[in-house]
Amino acid sequence: MQFNLFPSLIHIWCIVFVFLIIENSGTTASDKDIEKRLQAELLALGFPNGQLPTLVPALGNYVDVVEVNKLLFLSSAAPQTPQGTFVKGRVPNEVSVADAITASKLACARQVNRMKTYLGDLSKVKKIVFINGKVQSQSDFTNHTVVVDGCSTFLVNVFGEKVGKHARTSGGLTSLPFNVTIEVEIIVQRK
């Protein structure tokens, strides 16, 4: 009995090719959606024309992004307002929880800007892997998770559930550099 493997191999390659076309066509459509969703989030935060804020250079002997095996490790980002200043103060006695949640989103906007600057295109983000949010707070404050969830929500709103959902830690400190309200570190997987 003889088997002709040639037609089977062609069939397998056709299936793989169709799968790749479907996979890539879905990605292209969502690339445009990422930018639209980002613009909407930035407009809601008060950024003119929904544009990402100008990045402030690193203030020390470090870089904003280090890549290792397709993982991007983003240095801490503080909450930069549309006016270019930073949200400062301790939660909740100097900054309300609601304002701290907004500050968390502002810090994430800076991180998305770093991703876009480094990758050139947000469609190259495969997965938001991990977030570490540090909130400057009074010693008896316990709602750090609520504050850092502002950043998580921002990322899921921009990248969608599949790419944007991530693991996370949050905690409080009695002080942060330059008296900022929150710092957010992110690990991202690139395509």
CATH class: Alpha Beta
Note poorly predicted spans. Answer: 5-29
Strand line-up of the largest beta sheet: 1-2-5-3-4
Helix content: 40-55%
Organism: Adineta ricciae
Protein name: Endoribonuclease L-PSP/chorismate mutase-like domain-containing protein
Transmembrane segments: 6-22
Keywords: Membrane, Transmembrane, Transmembrane helix
Structure notes:
- It is a single chain.
- The protein is an alpha+beta fold and 191 residues long.
- Helices cover 44% and strands 20% of the residues.
- It is built from three helices and five strands; from the N terminus they run αββαβαββ.
- Strands 1-2-5-3-4 form a five-stranded mixed sheet, with helices on one face.
- α3 links the parallel β3 and β4 (167-173).
Structural features:
single chain; 191 residues; alpha+beta; 60s Ribosomal Protein L30, Chain: A; five-stranded mixed β-sheet; 5 strands; 44% helix; globular
